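STRUCTURE REQUEST FORM
Protein name: GntR family transcriptional regulator
Source organism: Ruixingdingia sedimenti
Requested output: structure tokens
Priority: standard
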Amino acid sequence: MTDSSEEIPQGQVVYRRLLEEIRDARLLPGTRLREVEVAERLGHSRTPVREAIRLLESDGLVVHQPRQGATVRVLDYPEVMELYEMRAVLEGTAARLAARVANETELRQLHELNAEFAAAGDNQQAARLNRQFHAMLLEAARNRFLLRSMRVVQKTMLILGPTTLLEADRTVTAAREHQTVLDALSARDGPGAEAAMRAHMEAAQMVRLRTLRRHERPLEE
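Status: completed
Returned output:
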């Protein structure tokens, strides 16, 4: 643990660790969060663990199930559809705005990130570079309210489980979809950038739904 983390309340430290584990698919949807087990595994007392679980509940990432207790939430199909629809709206808008206001340095960095993403050696590296690509594009839109709304969507996206980049050839296809967005950005074509980003989100949504159907995950009541 770093010195900076020691200055953060312990409940926040545990909260951030659990968020990372949900994001990295080490805590999958449906996983029970037993206070004693989490406390022993992370090396904290039960009090900050209890606080962290309450924070995850307030985020909508954890729910209390009968006879199970705190459990990482499982989204049903309509919720997944709504989540991706919101992401398409927000990131499509970000692409349109970025086409107008992004500077040449940002565009160059986006091209470089996508090249690294396409050449990623493993799924974890690809997922990290993909997050960086989308985060940089959102920043390039220069809209604080859009960023704030997107953070809410991104947090909920954490509970969808493993990245769709685990699917065969998805990284290659996603890199091509990114490039279509980038071509529109470089041409300062706002409507084209928005349409390309929406198409990218729709493709990711279809992969996600195929994954959910294949694993036949139970729906949340």
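Reviewer notes: The CA atoms of residues 96 and 106 lie 15 Å apart. The beta strands are 62-65, 69-72.
Form closed.
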